[in-house]
Design brief:
Layout lengths: L5 H8 L2 H11 L2 E2 L1 H6 L14 E2 L4 E2 L1 E3 L6 E3 L5 H10 L10 E5 L18 H4 L5 E5 H9 L1 H15 L9 H8 L23 E2 L3 H20 L6 H10 L8
Parallel strand pairs: 1-8
Antiparallel strand pairs: 2-3, 4-5, 6-7
Helix pairs in contact: 6-7
Length: 248
Amino acid sequence: MTAVDGLDALRLEIGVAEIARLIERTARWVSPETFRLLPVWYPEHARRRHFYKGGWSAPQMNRNRTTGVMVHKTEGNVYANKALTLALGLRQASRPNWSCCHIWGVDDATYQTANAVVSDHRFYSCVGNMVLLPTPLKAFTDTMPEIKAMLRICARNLYRWQCDHQTMASVNAALDQWQDWSAYPESWPREPGARTPLGVVDLTPDIERQATRRLATIREEFATAGEYYPREEVARVLDYWKIPLGTG
């Protein structure tokens, strides 16, 4: 048997358009109104950044089960998941077998390249940079360039925003030149505000309360959290998204 690329083998059995339709019918998107209300929910966190406890006053350590060595715990996808869950009006226990998928990020299906986008506090917990997918479908968004591109086109037209991290310049330029609409889902917008994708979760009073509470916590922690709180990073995030630190 001759080894072939797994994606090529898959494409022989199921077309990109069929995969895109699966995602179209099952994806859950934050509403544009929720995105505008609070675009980033945990500006103090980003991928691979350290965790702290006691109000950011002491490192949070984990013991390696094999070696017994204590290591400083780092962020994986915990707070991105929390942000998306709250912005969709869900609770973690009520979304089994669903996964948080970042839309903009470094494209590396081998996971060998550090992802500078989600390591940036501005974009890690940004709810316009995420979509909730049934867990099995996340593999398509991690590995298939066509699916990544279509998700990005949909997101930037839905939220009227795209990630402007320096590593995304060539990605966004390619999206500007996109012409192959043959597999692009019917309900996804091709231009800003043109359509509303299936699966958009409307802003509800509960989601609005969660956003208001989260913003109040951001402001309180900025003023009172301990020495390890990343104030410079948080200030940069809030300035980027034009979120005032005051209550006004």
